[in-house]
Amino acid sequence: MSKMKNIIWPQVILFGDSITQFSFQLNGWGSEIANKLARKCDVVNRGLSGYNTRWAKVVLPRILPPTASNPPVAVTIFFGANDCSLEDKNPQQHVPCEEFTQNLKDMVKYLASAGVPNDKVIFITPPPLHEASWEKECILKGCSLNRLNSVTGQYAQACVQTAGQCGVDVLDLWSLMQKDGQDFTVYLADGLHLSVKGNQFVAEHLWRLLESRVADLPFILPYWGDVDAKNPENSLLSD
Fold first, then answer.
1. Measured between alpha carbons, how far is residue 1 from residues 68, 144, 239 in Å?
2. Residue 1 pLDDT exceeds 50
3. Is the CB of residue 73 less than 8 Å from the CB of residue 23?
4. What is the side-by-side order of every strand in the sheet holding 169-171?
C-alpha cells in the first residue's frame, strides 16, 4: 500500500502590528480575507500589538524560517503606526523614518531569501490618525498625545516610495481614506485603530491586490457531492 500523502495547505501571512493582530476579530479585515480563501489556503495572523519595524525585522526569521518547505503565496507587511510615534512622547516605539524605510527593505530582502519573491509581498501604510480621538485614549492612559497625522503621513509616503524601490505592491490607506477630503474618522474606532467600516475598507482594497496572487489556488479536497459514497477513499486519498 502506497504511503498516504499529507495535504500541503498554501499560506497567506499577515504580518504587522495591532491593526493586524486585531484583524481576526468579528468583522475584521483578516477574517474577511480568510473567509474568501476558505478551502484554498490558510490565512495566518502574525500581528504583534505595539511592535515597530525595528522589532519586526528581528522576529521575522522566527515567524518564517529561511528553510521553510512551503513558502507563503503572499505576505502583507503592515507597520508604521507605532514607528511614527513622536520621539519625545513615545521613545519606546518610535523609529526614525529613515530607519523605518531601511527596515522595510531589509524585510523584503529577507523574504526573497526565504522563497517569497517581491511580487508576492504587499506593503500596507498606516491609516490616517484622528488626533482629537487618539488624544482622549492617551489621556486615559496617563500620557499626552503621542502621534500626529502629518507625521503618520510622512511614514505612509516613505512606505509608498519604498514599495516602488523594492518592486512590491502597496495599499496606501493614509491617502485613500482621506481622498477628496472625505471624513476618515468613520474608518477609525479610537483615532488610530480600525472601526468596522475601516476593517471593511481594508478588506475590500487589499483583496483587489491579493486576488491575482491566489486566483490559481485550487479548491482543496473534493466537493462533498463529488465524493464516491461507496468508496470514499477513492475520492479523498487521490491527488
1. 29, 68, 15
2. no
3. no
4. 42-47, 11-16, 74-78, 121-124, 169-171
Please say if the pLDDT value at position 3 is more than 70: no
Average pLDDT over residues 130-134: 96
Backbone angles phi, psi at 46, to 5 degrees: -125, 45
Count the residues in the chain: 239
β-sheet bridge partners, residue 47: 16
Residues with active-site annotation: 18, 190, 193
> What 3 state SS string does the chain have?
CCCCCCCCCCEEEEEECHHHHHHHCCCCHHHHHHHHCCCCCEEEEEECCCCCHHHHHHHHHHHCCCCCCCCCCEEEEECCCCCCCCCCCCCCCCCCHHHHHHHHHHHHHHHHHCCCCHHHEEEECCCCCCHHHHHHHHHHCCCCCCCCHHHHHHHHHHHHHHHHHHCCEEECHHHHCCHHHCCHHHHECCCCCECHHHHHHHHHHHHHHHHHHHCCCCCCCCCHHHCCCCCHHHHHCCC
Please, which contacts does 67-70 make with residues 24 or more away whose CB atoms are closer than 8 Å?
68/114, 68/115, 70/8, 70/10, 70/11
The pTM of this model reads: 0.95
CB 100 within 8 A of CB 83: yes
What pLDDT, in 10s, does the model give residues 26-39? 999 999 999 999 99
